[in-house]
Amino acid sequence: MLDWNDLRYFLSVARTGSTLAASKQMKVSQSTVSRRITAFEEDIGVKLFVRKPSGYDLTPRGESVLPAAESVEAAILSFSDGIEAESRRLAGTVRLTTVESAANAWVIPAVGLLRERYPEISVEIMTSDQYLDLARGEADIAIRFGPKPTQETLIVRHLIDMLESFYASEQLVAQIGMPEDIPDMARYPLVSSLDGESSTSRWVAERVPGATIAQRASTLSSIIASVQSGLGASILPCLMGDDIKGLVRLMPPIEELTTPGWMVTTDEARRQPHIRAVIDFVVEQIQLSLARRPTHLSVVQAA
Q1: Is the alpha carbon torsion for 218, 223, 229, 234 positive or negative?
Q2: Are 240 and 101 in contact, with CB atoms under 8 Å apart?
Q3: What's the CATH code of the domain at 68?
Q4: pTM exceeds 0.70 for this model
Q5: Angle 19-26/30-44 helices, nearest 10 degrees?
Q6: How far apart are CA 123 and CA 109, in angstroms?
Q7: Residue 291 and residue 209: Cα distance in Å, rounded?
Q8: Do 129 and 151 reside in the same domain of the chain?
Q9: End-to-end CA distance of the chain
Q10: Are 263 and 231 in a shared domain?
Q11: Which of 64, 90, 169, 263 is in the most buried spot, having the most CB atoms within 10 Å?
């Protein structure tokens, strides 16, 4: 069976008249072009070119097969154009839900790039610390953090393992000093979630006994604002805390608090081309973003 790439080399040399010009056109070495042409001729048992000091001329047999090769090229280009046109015709509304921090860090930038590729797809971003019910159609896609969702109707992809640590404002660190270890965080006033039963809240209660909770807040953005204002220290994702001007990471990432992140959808939603396109694109952009932050995160290849 003929290899389309062999035809590409044949056509390039036939049109330019030399392996040097063809190599520049195809952005490969001249020796590669020469080798591919020779191998192609041997495979089909036909001499296609006459080698001359001035270049390559088509033999009569080469002249006779040139129109057929050009027809194959036209068909492949037409097919490629059709696929591209079809991808650009993907259209519809996709509802994606996640926490505000993930939306700001990953989803919104990804959606901006997605619009360039799929201009007829509209993504509605719903930020909430509460889980929407994908099985009941409250959203099409979710990016969630914490234990792996176990609902049977959900399709779950592991995205990342996100590192976390204590952060405080530069002013508060100047007043109190850097902690020697985790129990020494008891010297700091702490900002915590309203959910006293969350895994982070329970961990703080166990590892920092006697800690003073100076402020409680219901959302991560509120906790960050409280830390920035100097109300106290708090545990934040390193992805965010390391990038916030005026905050200081008080210790290395806390291994026990590493939080897995998940891309979640349903089988029904995943089967819809415009939704699948958004899933694949957002996952791709998240992985590219995380790859640029090796000190902040442990990146896990999505399944």
Answers
A1: positive
A2: yes
A3: 1.10.10.10
A4: no
A5: 110
A6: 12
A7: 36
A8: yes
A9: 34
A10: no
A11: 263
Helix (H, G, I), strand (E, B), or coil: what is residue 89? coil
CA distance 237 to 243: 10
For the chain, what is the largest distance between any 2 Cα atoms, rounded to a whole number of angstroms?
A: 92
Residues 168 and 236 in one domain: yes
Residue for token pair 């889980």: 131
Which CATH number goes with the domain that contains 129?
Answer: 3.40.190.10
pLDDT of residue 289: 73
Mean pLDDT for each 10-residue chunk of the chain (303 residues)? 81 90 90 91 90 91 89 84 68 91 84 88 89 92 89 88 92 94 94 78 89 87 91 90 91 90 92 91 82 49 32
Q: What letter does residue 246 receive in the DSSP assignment?
A: T
> How many folded domains does the chain comprise?
3
Residue 95's closest CA among 218, 272, 240? 272
Sequence-distant (≥ 6) Cβ neighbours of residue 60 within 8 angstroms: none
- Cα separation, 165 vs 78, in Å, equals 54
Predicted pLDDT of residue 82: 72
Same domain for 131 and 202? no
pLDDT on residue 163: 87
The whole-number pLDDT of residue 90 equals 83
The residue out of 51, 72, 88 marking a domain boundary is 88
pLDDT at position 85: 64
Q: Please give the residue range of the domain that contains residue 275.
A: 92-162+259-299
Contact 217, 198 (CB under 8 A): no
